[in-house]
Amino acid sequence: MKRVLLATEKPFAASAVAKIEEIFAKVNYELIKLENYASVDELKNGVKDVHALIIRSDKVTSEIMAEAPELKIVVRGGAGYDNVDCNAASEKGITVMNTPGVNANAVAELAMGMAVYVARNLFTPKSGSELLGKKIGIHAYGNVGKNVARIAKGFGMEVYAFDPFIKKEIIEADDVKVVDTVEELYKTCQYISLHIPANEHTKKSINKNLLSLMPKGATLLNTARKEVVCEEGLKIILEERPDFKYASDIAPDSASELNEKFAGRVFFTPKKMGAQTGEANVNAAVAAANQIVNFFENGDITFKVN
Ligand code: 3PG
Questions:
Q1: Residues 259-280: pLDDT tens digits?
Q2: How far is residue 55's CA from residue 32's CA, in Å, rounded to a whole number?
Q3: Domain check: are 111 and 260 in the same one?
Q4: Range of 34's domain?
Q5: For a pocket test of ligand 1, which of 6, 103, 109 has the largest count of ligand atoms closer than 8 A to its C-beta?
Q6: Of 6, 80, 211, 298, which is the most buried if we count CB atoms within 10 A?
């Protein structure tokens, strides 16, 4: 009998967990739940005799994998897999998958929600500004970026994008203007919405030079990863430019300092919550569970990332 561990430090909605239970019950797999766990040791104990692992942003390091001799597959219910040591997994013959696109709308709605919140001075009585007619730059046009573009157009914003990995025509088909350089995107747009993954090339890449190109009344929206923003550079920009605002889904390391110094111009969610909707949880849970069943029963590796 296959054993699957659902290890979520930030749990899925109960309806999503019920779906996972249903899918595995049909194929007679055992589901073990480790939700809301608080220490790495709990995860280490949990993986000991399981064949598959479903996670969210939970860190799966080589240390964790060393405790899991039976483990064959890790599925990250969601898009970003920077939390999994993919090289260590490959060395151990463990397949790593993500479930791309399933929570993209939820994240995009939060990005635009933060845009409104920041434009209206964190819902304080001070006179704010509107999104209508403003330019928004989508930095990386993947599933989330595409959804942000759709919603931003509903607000009457002019939508621009930069993504060297996606053909221009594909982005233009969404009635989005494509720019050729990242600098041009930042120079053009008052709002920038980040959708790049966190990796060795992108960490700290949103730096002072890039941010300083943004026009007056600039707002940086980060629903990607805190690590892609260079906090030192951001701090300087916030200091130099009283017109600059930053909203991030998950607090940066220097959150308390930024909150104190730049109150009213910065906003951070206490816990990453872009994907935290019942709908996105169900989508991610169902995709993850089905991918595991398909992997074991049919050898399907469609969403393998390592
Ligand atoms: C993702 O990469 O899919 C999102 O950042 C959501 O992450 P979460 O499942 O940890 O909320």
A1: 999 999 999 999 999 999 999 9
A2: 12
A3: yes
A4: 3-102+277-298
A5: 103
A6: 6
